[in-house]
Amino acid sequence: QAQFVESGGGLVRPGGDLRLSCAASGFAFGIFAMSWYRQAPGRERELIAAVFTNGRTLHYEDSVKGRFTISRDDAKSTVYLQMRSLKPEDTAVYYCNAGESEPYFDSWGQGTQVTVSS
Prior knowledge:
By secondary structure, the chain is mainly β. The chain has strands at residues 3-7, 10-12, 18-25, 34-39, 46-51, 57-59, 68-73, 78-83, 92-98, 112-116.
């Protein structure tokens, strides 16, 4: 069964940076595109970025383009999200899953909370 363990979230002031990590297990990580999602209070979970097996990236959310960078380390079965110039509207629980446009697996990790506030 696919498992995801997200980490790296926290409380940060506007303009600050965070780097999230997602350690995946239970499936052949190297053959899947991987994605980051986020869910803000009162809103549905949304896809924000994907990284393909060849390293090509795609950012779905205009609001994160130029600020967030997704990457992967296949040797560690881990996907990262470097977040810069954080804004209060980035406050959400962040999750990862396999797939490039929709979650491939039904299972989700616990997520990691990112709170951007002064």
